[in-house]
Amino acid sequence: MAAIVSLISFSAPSPSYAATNLPYPSKLGRWWLGDSYTGTGLQPIKNSSGQKVGEYELFVNYYHETQYSFEIMVCAWDTSANGRGVVARVLLKYATNSSYEVVKHKDGAVCNKTWRPSIGSPVWAVDVDHGEAWGSTTYKHTGYFDRYVGFVNPAQRWPGFSTSDLT
Predict the structure, then answer these.
(1) Residue 145's domain spans which residues?
(2) Per the confidence metrics, is the pTM higher than 0.70?
């Protein structure tokens, strides 16, 4: 059993793992479903115990002008009704493991707003940190996050960035 755990731990990407820079222009999508499936689809938000307490959906367009620019829309929904809200925190990952926070989106907030951040360095991933909010606590990271990198394999079955529908 220890050998299996060691093998899984070794092969799983760590938070400091730097992937190849995202292709630009590109979009975040689920390309195995066809070119029109942009965004992540509904993804679970987990609490610190690993239980699903909400959901988020993320849409990202990435392009390069004078800087590396993005159009980002994120929505979050509390599905647990436990008296706490959920927060989806979006970060751009660049350099070896630096982060640039774009937005913290709390459930109940208007989710049709598009953020347009730019950064001076190429980006290799977009992370969504899972968080909760309650009372005067506006954000508490739960220890979980999702990482979206370039889509490089036709058999890939998680959302990734691709130029597939942009050509």
Answers:
(1) 24-160
(2) yes
